[in-house]
Design goal:
Elements lengths: L17 H29 L2 H25 L8 H28 L1 H8 L1 H8 L5 H17 L8 H27 L4 H24 L4 H28 L2 H8 L2 H13 L5 H19 L4
């Protein structure tokens, strides 16, 4: 019996291999876990604010990040040249400033709004220099969301919002500096060196806190958990995810982080948001997702 074959002109669509499909599902699950871990870490860290303050929590987070990135990157510090050192130093300063401004903003305006404002940093990098009409529309959409978030009202904390925007500027700088460090230093050596230097900058903070007011074990535990969940877990998870998930899918999922932050803030910290705030968060998320989804590169 002859087997009927498809015409030569019929397109042949390869079926996904079970291993590839399984890896993709694992990658998506890892992205979900990474996002939730990141925002949960920030929420848990904020529980230590009454004892350690935002600067104390950030100091512990920097120590944890340094331990993880030093183990992963294993930087050969003695081989670094001046050409390599200066972006590493700037990256260390930006890394610490970004986390400090974000956590202080979380303390003042809540997790959801602080993370949404910080998210404007990578969104600005994505839209900068683009001449596409759709990106102009995305910029207008994100701007409308920010205007709603920062609208005048009796309960508005403009210092907290300003700190969220400082965190956004630092995140944008962090992305650009990471590119420079990645071009000049192989592997994760630059990231490890920057994390170690940032931890050294925060070392006096830890010493002062311990001398002036010995922290409670619960507060230190929350700060360490913030470091693990918001630094170690996302970094390692993203390394795995980018091997199994296309970069565009990864970028689209990153857009959901402000929503995750708002949900975690509601569930863990009881920080409820009004309809206008949810709409503003949705506008920022939609702007980033639309820009990535319609991008050719």
């Amino acid at each position: 019996m002859r087997v009927r074959t498809a015409p030569a002109s019929a397109p042949q669509v390869p079926l996904p291999r079970p291993e590839s499909a399984r890896a993709g599902l694992v990658g998506v699950a890892t992205m979900v876990g990474s996002g939730l871990a990141n925002q949960t870490g920030a929420a848990v860290g904020s529980l230590a604010f009454p004892v350690l303050g935002p600067i104390g929590v950030v100091a512990v987070r920097q120590y944890v990040a340094a331990a993880v990135l030093l183990a992963v990157g294993r930087p050969r510090l003695r081989s670094f040249t001046r050409h390599q050192w200066w972006p590493v130093v700037l990256l260390a300063v930006v890394f610490g400033t970004m986390n400090l401004s974000l956590y202080t903003a979380v303390d003042r305006v809540g997790l959801g709004l602080a993370v949404t404002l910080e998210f404007l940093g990578p969104l600005a990098i994505a839209l900068a220099g683009s001449r596409r009409r759709v990106d102009a529309l995305c910029a207008l959409l994100a701007t409308a969301g920010v205007v709603v978030l920062m609208r005048p009202r009796p309960s508005a904390d403009y210092l907290g919002m300003a700190l969220g925007l400082v965190a956004a500027a630092c995140w944008a700088s962090y992305i650009l500096l990471n590119r420079t460090v990645g071009r000049r230093i192989p592997g994760a050596q630059g990231a490890g060196a920057a994390a170690a230097l940032s931890a050294l900058l925060f070392l006096p903070v830890g010493v002062v806190l311990v001398v002036r007011q010995p922290p409670t074990l619960a507060a230190v535990g929350c700060a360490v958990a913030a470091g693990v969940l918001s630094s170690a877990v996302p970094y390692l998870a993203d390394l795995f995810t980018l091997r199994h998930v296309p970069a565009r899918v990864f970028g689209l999922f990153m857009s959901v982080n402000p929503v995750l932050a708002a949900l975690v803030g509601l569930v863990v910290l009881g920080q409820g948001l009004g309809g206008a705030e949810w709409a503003a968060i949705g506008a920022v998320v939609a702007a980033n997702a639309l820009s990535i989804a319609t991008s050719r590169a």
